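LOG
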Amino acid sequence: ADDGMFLSIGETQDAKYILVTSGNSNMSETQFVLAASPTEPLAMIAPRRADVQYDVDHHQGRFFILTNANDAVDFKLVTTPVETPAASHWQDWQSHEAGTYIAAFATYKEFIVRLERRDARPRLVISDYKGRAHEVAIDEQAFAFGFVGSAEYDTEIFRYTYASPTRPTQIIDYNMRTKTGELRKTKSVPSGHKPDLYVTERLTAIAEDGAQIPVMVLRLKQTPLDGSAPLMLYGYGSYGIYIEDDFSTNILSLVDRGMIYACAHVRGGSAKGRQWYLDGKLGSKMNSFTDFISCGEMLVAQKYTAAGKIISYGGSAGGLLVGAAVNLAPELFGGVLGAVPFVDVLNTISDESLPLTPPEWVEWGDPIRTKDGYDWIKSYSPYDNIPAGKHYPPIMATGGLADYRVTYWEPAKWIARLRDTATGGPFLLRMNMTAGHGGSAARFEAMEERAHLYAYALKLVGLDKTDPVSHQ
């Protein structure tokens, strides 16, 4: 009955229990029933309470629970008998380790698998139920794991995906007993792909308060590092979402023409754990925007690019990121791409008739009932913080008329106010009259939308007539 909660249903890995979970980005609760008796009343594991989240699986009469309870900011694994599932009976199985974020786990008959992340680097850890563990080793500066798992419970095979900015996605079946992997498939690139043409690097930017911000950089080996190269700086930084350092042929269309690509893992995401997320939400939200600027300034200082040659790019809450950053430091950027950008924050989060507003108060604050919530949002909302007469770089925003997450009037109002208030530009709006938040659902139309944004970025930095490097 609570409009601020989402509801989901699933089952344990062994298919013995049906799980019904409700919650938001701040709290959760799970109820369960035997799959063999689905019409019986649901039993509660632990009622939801503020700032406590948990996910549940089952193994031989015990629930395994991933939770941040009792100040386990980066989560821990606990167990409890099915007969006494309440939080008072939870016993640590994998204790909390600050800075090591346990993102997911799965239980199998003889093994338990967990996906962890430390300092923006993922790792897969396999263990038996006596705690003997090993890690799937990867020797790259930046990469991504996909936690696929197995549909079977009694299995020694765990499937995962692996990719890096230079290497297409691989599907690997990993034998948890023999500690060996078997490659099942590598994503093909029909136009050809030569990984050795590229360099992937992991850099660190220093925030205003001293925090160390991870930055992934992808470039051609031949691209000079003398400040002459243009650069696209991408970011998101909200809801604790982690932007993986994976493979994208879209990005290569830029890099192959001499543009450097960088992803800033700013606070508000969870690249460095849940505390990294907490330090970029509510009253600390400004950290996300100043972190992004610090990343750009670091890339200029190390001569990956120069001020005025950075194209910032973000979508949805990432559009908020680039919109707020350009308000703070317009001279740093040579252009801004805001895809369905969440830029009219104060008005949207003040309208509780919108279906997604009540769940969002735990992320941004409640501007209706609390002065702090109002003041926080008012201080950074891009639409509300455009200084009169300030010179801005070119900005392109996109929107979808059927978008119920970021309503179409947000980018429309933002561009209108930029045209009315700021100098510079141009300030452009592309509105899809049939699409929602994700843009067109048609494959080729979606590709055209992304190509249009990237073509504009290339035009702004003078690479629109540059031929890409050959992969043949």
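LOG (cont.) second protein
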Amino acid sequence: DTPGFALVIEGDITYSGTAYYVSDQQLKKNVEDISNATDIISRLHPKEYEYKQEDYPYIKLPNGIQRGLLAQEVQQVLPDLVRDITLPAKRDTSGKILAPQAEFKGINYEGFTPIILKALQEQQAMIDSLARELAEVKSRMNNCCGSEIQYRNNGTGEYTQEETHQQSIKLSNHQQILLNQNQPNPFAESTVIDYIVPENAASAEMHFTTLSGFVIRTVALQTGKGRLTVFAQDLSSGIYSYSLVVDGKVMETKKMVKTR
């Protein structure tokens, strides 16, 4: 018997049908949404490998190329998905040892499923956000630099095509507040954020947060037109937000994507 395990199988398994895992809400407590799943996934490193069958002939390790994760690396990121396993020594009826005791680590691959699902949702949210920002930029460009095709009678009974350029502006007596999208985005090591804070503002700050709302850094800003250079070599990959806060009020928030 292997301590802690109801069933231990060496070799391949084939079955038909559907496996259902106990997952009813009434059986669970301390239920919380998974956060920073994209960052978790980026810290895992899938590998291609072969098992050392010649060194462990007493364990029925599979043949050929395998793909997966290294338990020791997963343990650094998700220790609850890794478990130490001990296979007791195998003995014959007289007590003679046929195979020594084996100790190694195992991974709960099923535990990655909800993390992958959450990472896909986070990535889709980022795509949707970038798509909205792109649509907004295109709309502004069309309003600013649009054109209209008109036809004019040239007096000979024929019509000539003329292009009338149109331009829209908005006048306001309020001082401008502006927060630009960081450039480049996504970025690996550094990125730049341009902003404008009204001269009559009493205070201004830039807040950097994770998707879950955890504040990473708060930076005091001067009024007027400014540029903030962000260095993030030590920041893990993922989606982050930055907000321009003027006189204690969040004026605008944008997302930035950190890659390796």
